[in-house]
Structures are given as C-alpha cells and as structure tokens.
Amino acid sequence: MTTTADAQNTETKAPTNGAMIVTDSASAKIAELIAQEEEEGMFLRVAVRPGGCSGLSYEMFFDSEKTDDDITNEQGGIKVVVDPESAPYLAGATLDYKDSLQGAGFAINNPNVSKSCGCGNSFS
C-alpha cells in the first residue's frame, strides 16, 4: 500500500456521508478483484491502524462482515466500508488505482495527513 499526494486520476464522486472518495479506476480494479474472490457479499474494508514510523498506517482488505456502526459508501458498483474509529482519518481521502510503467497499485491521497514517513507507508 502506498500513499501519495498526487491522486490526479479521472472522476471522483464525493460521498455524502463524509467517507472516503473512490476514483473510477479504483472502483473498476476493486470490482475486478472482488469478482476473482468468487464469494458473495464481498466489499473493500479500509482502516487506519497504529503502526509504521509515523504512527498510523492504512489497512485494506476484502471482507464480508459488517457491524451496525460501520460507515458504508457505495461508488462505482462497489462498497467501501470504514469502521467508526478510522472514519475521522479517512474522511475526504481519495482512493485511486494507477497502472503505469513505474508500477501498479492503490494510492490514498489524504488531506488529513499532517506528516508522512520517508517510505510513504505511514502517516500522522
């Protein structure tokens, strides 16, 4: 997982509940990966956990179990779920997917980050 201050990809649709924004390219890649899982009801869970050199790091994985207080945002035909503890750190952040000669992967552009580490994997 990498973070970047340069998420300049395609269209984004701002969620109405203050949750994370997902670009069209990220939605398409997530849908492709979920289809490969061959399990019904899968969604992408994004969380912020303690760790890394700057104090916090992102965690993303496919899940199928939600709690009543999870924040769910549906964009581009996929669901992105954030737990309530992670939500303040991710509100307004953009999840993007890039596939270029330099490599492919997801990137989070987060306006809430005040400082990030040199490796780009953690923030505060």
Secondary-structure blueprint:
Layout: E1 2-3, E2 21-22, H1 24-37, E3 43-50, E4 56-63, E5 71-75, E6 78-82, H2 87-90, E7 94-100, E8 103-109, E9 122-123
Parallel strand pairs: 1-8, 2-7, 3-6
Antiparallel strand pairs: 3-4, 4-9, 5-6, 7-8
Structure description:
This protein has 124 residues and is mainly beta. It has a domain at 1-6 and 39-109: Hypothetical Protein Aq_1857, Chain: A. Helices cover 15% and strands 37% of the residues. The chain has two helices and nine strands. It has helices at 24-37, 87-90; strands spanning 2-3, 21-22, 43-50, 56-63, 71-75, 78-82, 94-100, 103-109, 122-123. Strands 5-6-3-4-9 form a five-stranded mixed sheet. A four-stranded mixed sheet has the order 1-8-7-2. Mean pLDDT is 81; it is low at 1-14.
CATH class of the domain at 1-6 and 39-109: Mainly Beta
Order of helices and strands: EEHEEEEHEEE
Low-pLDDT stretches are: 1-14
β-strand number: 9
Annotated CATH topology of the domain at 1-6 and 39-109? Hypothetical Protein Aq_1857, Chain: A
Indicate the mean pLDDT. 81
Strand order of the largest sheet: 5-6-3-4-9
Radius of gyration: 14 Å
Largest sheet: 5 strands, mixed
Strand content: 35-45%
Large-scale geometry = globular
Structural class: mainly beta
- Helix count, per DSSP? 2
How helical, in percent, are the residues? 10-25%
CATH superfamily of the domain at 1-6 and 39-109: HesB-like domain
CATH architecture of the domain at 1-6 and 39-109, by name, is Sandwich
- First-residue to last-residue Cα separation: 16 Å
